[in-house]
Specification:
This protein is α+β, with helices and mostly antiparallel strands and 956 residues long. Among the domains are: 65-157, no CATH class; 173-206 and 219-286, Nuclear Transport Factor 2, Chain: A (Roll), CATH 3.10.450; 287-462, Roll (Elastase, domain 1), CATH 3.10.170; 471-536 and 539-579 and 587-595 and 607-634, Orthogonal Bundle (Neutral Protease, domain 2), CATH 1.10.390. Helix content is 21%, strand content 31%. The protein contains 21 helices and 55 strands. Helix 12 (380-398) packs across helix 13 and helix 18 packs antiparallel against helix 21 (603-615).
Length: 956
């Protein structure tokens, strides 16, 4: 799970909808995480193979690589008497014409060899010029025959043969860390629109709590962070090659800390292009529910779980104090001797617990081996007992030695809070389990065994397939965690045949029953054709939770058909010996089917495995079966968070190449689709992003190794003009009449709006250089520049409002502050009015639409925040119409309540849907009249699309 709570009340649905991947951009992730099914390529018919004493292997070709994704049906001698890794390497070298791996000893680093009931599997990590390749993992499976000779029985995974990128970085490691930190800070408030929030003052805790629901509204500034700094810290892991096109050389940086606006824990994995310093991939590192000898020093104790059941606990007595602690030293005493320990973290903030060991941890102790009421109510008894159950399951069922199979220590923190307020979730952060203390409705999150099993399984996934936590691979990560979490629960409790066996988290509620309480149901019947949510990577990291039950549902069907023992072995074998980090649904189906065959599954049982995937729509080409009513202007952008601009009958956006391997370039074209798109930016290795156009000029930001430049170019042709070199993070570029405006953001959180006029060499900063003022979200029309402003008034009271600067004269007109106690977002200006979204009502998911004349008068709530349809995310204005991004606050998730575009007149009347596309619609950019362009995720691709007029009434 992500850190956003997953129970589908409207409030939680809104929080998740708006939670995005912190980070400024995501290059080519559609290509990087592509899950299009490769065509199976059987060399001979089955009958011929059966008759052939030396059958040809069954090959499934890889995507964008000469190395096959899966090889089955072989039994080839492994010509090496040494280690399994040496034998596997020699096999790959001897079969070079099949695998196309030129030098396995140079390019493959052996990881752990998995030894199972049917043989060994060696997992190799690909390296390119000595640098690890993200997702480049290849497995070789071997069996030992009589006499000790090994044979290779199959291979699978991803080895990328087309990589030619150099190993030299132009960007320094320190610059990469700075830009990753700034990108994470900016991205925490991004979501496609923009917001500015005032969080200081006497009611700051209440505002922070409510602001959690607004997380992800836009690329900009949270007032508290900008004025007071940030605790985010970046740590570099060195160079990594992203396998896109010819390869992208990046620095891998982990940014940890807490969201300065909401207090939510942050652990963001960000990859910074080593040539240009632009963040090209970003995803969350927080994955949340979201027999030993008798001589060990521990002893047996007991405690009572929150459900009232008394359980045995392995505990340890302290020799000095005589107190007993929740430290299990029995289970791993015969091996690593690492303990299973549970800590009381009720004085710890969730942000401080993410990716690091926080201060304030307390041992859970008792004067006797029987732990009392406090240990029960804190969730410590449940967490400690459940951790032992999960350890035992993996040890006894799969022979696994702890989460990493090397006897790692298992640590659990119970009762963390959200800045003293309830934290209603749990997560695995790469080294420990962290459980929120719950609230008046929810128990502490360690109180359900399937949740503990889910979180600990994230640790198993991390140390096996390493499924990247975004898009389809992230949904697989969640699906496997759900599957094993539930399998462990029903195995330990004996509830295999219960009608509630498929529910996740069903025991966490204090008042609701299991079905109403459950966070997910593995028997929800969801399919790709009907239920796959076409979201962008700004929502739930690309649907890691939202689409997970499509796959976990198929796995659970297999378990119900074949029984728990067989199904669990099949899924575990697929996880440890077949799956690789960037696999999607169809590749994972192939992995599970191959693992089933490997374990002797055939006949009606093998048909049941395939039938389960068929029933959930996980079949070849399922992504292509979704239609759209919009006109595509530019397809497969392979971008994220760079947005689109429109004006004067033209559009502008950024695009990578087909495979997402090239730095972004800026393209522009006519919004009516006539003519061919134009390439505006130079192909110079920089990332050209955040473009805007007024129909005459295109302006954008270019990220390079040492600076970020503001550039522009006329649409009619001519040279690219350098307007300014910022040296920091830049976004929200706007252009009108040759005046260009933008927003700068420092790694420390300060944000400010700047503009530059034709012929000038230095920009104007609208804050006048005052550090105590924060400005963000510029919008430009003619000579009028509007923006959001957080400031302290003459009475010392923090305020947030909008301001208009006349760029011709420099005159500034502050629009009077009116409430806005939580924040404002996405100002937009046309020739008559300045519009913006306002959030005045605490703990409410709606935003109203406010308007003022360009002289600052006529302040009007065009659409009140308390209106029944005021669930807005963004707004843009043309000369005659308003285009708003809206979502439905329905219970649960469906394509109908993803963000959609609606259009009204300039008074907010006559709302109609712009498009009936079933997927997510974002970055709505108003052209002239009623025409709108936007970035659409309906078909699982990131496309720039348009409509000339609203579609009207839609069925979803």
């Amino acid at each position: 799970m992500s850190t956003s709570p997953m129970r589908t009340t409207p409030k939680r649905a809104a929080a998740l909808r708006r939670s995005g991947i912190p980070g400024a951009a995501l290059l080519g992730v559609a290509a990087l995480l592509s899950a299009a099914a490769p065509a199976a390529q059987a060399a001979q018919p089955a009958a011929a193979r059966a008759a052939d004493p030396d059958p040809a292997p069954e090959l499934i070709p890889g995507q964008r690589t000469a190395t096959p994704a899966l090889v089955e049906g072989i039994e080839e001698p492994a010509q090496d008497s040494g280690s399994a890794a040496d034998a596997a390497r020699k096999h790959l070298a001897q079969k070079k014409s099949r695998y196309h791996i030129s030098d396995p000893r140079r390019d493959l680093t052996a990881g752990k060899t998995v030894r199972g009931r049917t043989g060994e599997a060696v997992r190799f990590q690909q390296k390119h010029k000595g640098i690890p390749v993200l997702g480049g993992q290849y497995l070789v499976r071997l069996e030992e025959k009589k006499g000790g000779d090994r044979v290779v029985t199959g291979t699978s995974g991803k080895y990328f043969t087309g990589l030619t990128v150099g190993a030299g970085a132009k960007v320094s490691e320190g610059t990469a860390v700075e830009r990753a930190t700034a990108a994470a800070l900016t991205g925490l408030s991004e979501g496609g629109a923009g917001s500015l929030t005032r969080l200081s003052g006497p009611d700051a805790p209440e505002r922070k709590s409510a602001a959690k629901e607004q997380r992800g509204k836009g690329s900009s500034l949270k007032g508290g962070a900008s004025l007071k700094g940030t605790s985010l810290k970046g740590t570099s892991h060195g160079l990594v090659v992203l396998p896109q096109g010819k390869g992208v050389l990046t620095y891998h940086v982990t940014v940890t800390g807490e969201d300065p606006a909401t207090g939510a824990p942050v652990k963001q994995e960000i990859y910074i292009d080593a040539d240009a310093g632009f963040p090209v991939l970003s995803y969350s590192g927080i994955q949340a529910f979201d027999d030993a000898p008798s001589a060990h020093p521990g002893t047996e104790g007991s405690g009572v779980k929150l459900d009232g059941g008394k359980v045995a606990l392995d505990v340890t007595k302290d020799a000095k104090s005589g107190a007993y602690g929740l430290i299990d030293q029995r289970r791993q005493w015969g091996g690593s001797k690492n303990p299973i320990t549970t800590y009381d973290a009720r004085d710890v903030d969730a942000g401080d617990a993410s990716g690091k060991w926080p201060k304030g941890l307390k041992d859970v102790t008792s004067p006797t081996p029987e732990f009392g009421k406090d240990a029960t109510e804190s969730g410590a008894v449940d967490a400690h007992w459940a951790a032992g159950q999960v350890y035992d399951y993996y040890r006894t069922k799969h022979g696994r030695d702890s989460l990493d199979d090397k006897g790692m220590a298992i640590n659990s923190l119970v009762g963390v809070t959200d800045q003293g307020l309830p934290f209603v979730n749990a997560f695995w952060d790469g080294q420990k389990m962290v459980y929120g203390g719950g609230d008046e409705e929810n128990k502490v999150f360690s109180a359900d065994l399937d949740v503990v099993g889910h979180e600990m399984t994230h640790g198993v996934v991390e140390h096996t397939a390493g499924l990247v936590y975004t898009g389809q691979s992230g949904a697989l990560n969640e699906a496997v965690a759900d599957y094993f979490g539930n399998a462990i629960d029903v195995t330990a409790t004996g509830n295999e045949d219960s009608p509630e066996a498929s529910l996740i988290g069903e025991n966490l509620c204090r008042t609701q029953g299991p079905k109403d309480c459950a966070m997910r149901d593995l028997n929800d019947g969801r399919t790709t054709g009907k239920d796959f949510l076409g979201v962008t990577y700004a929502t739930d990291s690309g649907g890691v939770h939202l689409n997970s039950t499509i796959f976990s549902g198929a796995l659970w069907d297999i378990r119900e058909d074949l029984g728990g023992d067989r199904a669990d072995r099949i899924v575990y074998k697929a996880l440890t010996e077949y799956l690789t980090p960037l696999d999607g649904f169809t590749e994972a189906r192939g992995a599970v089917v191959a693992a089933a065959k490997d374990l002797g599954t055939k006949g009606k049982d093998l048909r049941a495995v395939n039938r389960a995937f068929d029933a959930h729509g996980i079949v070849k080409g399922w992504e292509k079966a979704i239609g759209a009513d919009s006109d595509k202007l530019l397809g497969d952008l392979n971008i994220k968070r760079t947005g689109a601009g429109a004006g004067g009958g033209w559009w502008a956006t950024s695009k990578s190449d087909e495979e997402g391997g090239e730095p972004y370039s800026v393209h522009a074209g006519r919004t009516d689709g006539k003519g061919a798109p134009k390439l505006l930016s130079p192909n110079d290795g920089r990332f050209h992003v955040h473009p805007d156009t007024d129909g005459k000029t295109v302006a954008w930001a270019a990220y390079g190794a040492d600076s970020v430049e503001i550039l522009s170019r006329p649409l009619r042709g001519g040279p690219v003009k350098k307007l300014w070199s910022a040296g920091t993070t830049v976004g929200n570029v706007k252009v009108s009449g040759n005046t260009v405006a933008w927003q700068e953001s420092s790694p420390f959180g300060q944000q400010r709006v700047a503009y530059i006029k034709p012929g000038e060499r230095e920009p104007h900063f609208v804050d006048g250089g005052r550090y105590e003022v924060a400005t963000a979200l510029p919008t430009l029309s003619g000579d009028k520049l509007g923006y959001a402003k957080a400031y302290t008034d003459k009475d010392g009271i923090d305020q947030i409002s909008t301001e208009i600067t006349d760029v011709r004269t420099g005159k500034q007109t502050l629009v009077p502050a009116k409430e806005s106690r939580l924040g404002i977002s996405t100002p937009t200006i046309n020739g008559k009015y300045l519009y913006w979204l306002v959030d005045d009502i605490a703990d409410d998911n709606r935003q109203g639409l406010r308007r003022a004349k360009l002289d600052g008068t006529g302040l009007t709530d065009v659409i009140p925040e308390d209106g029944k349809d005021s669930y807005f995310w963004g707004v843009d204005a043309s000369d005659t119409a308003l285009t708003l991004t809206r979502w439905k606050p329905e219970r649960g998730w469906s394509n109908s309540n993803l963000t959609k575009l609606v259009q009204t007149d300039l008074d907010g009347k006559g709302a109609q849907r712009v498009s009936c596309n079933r997927g997510e619609q974002s970055y709505g950019a108003a052209d002239t009249g009623r025409r709108v362009v936007w970035i659409d995720g309906t078909t699982g691709h990131t496309d720039l699309v348009t409509r000339a007029r609203p579609a009207g009434t839609c069925t979803q």
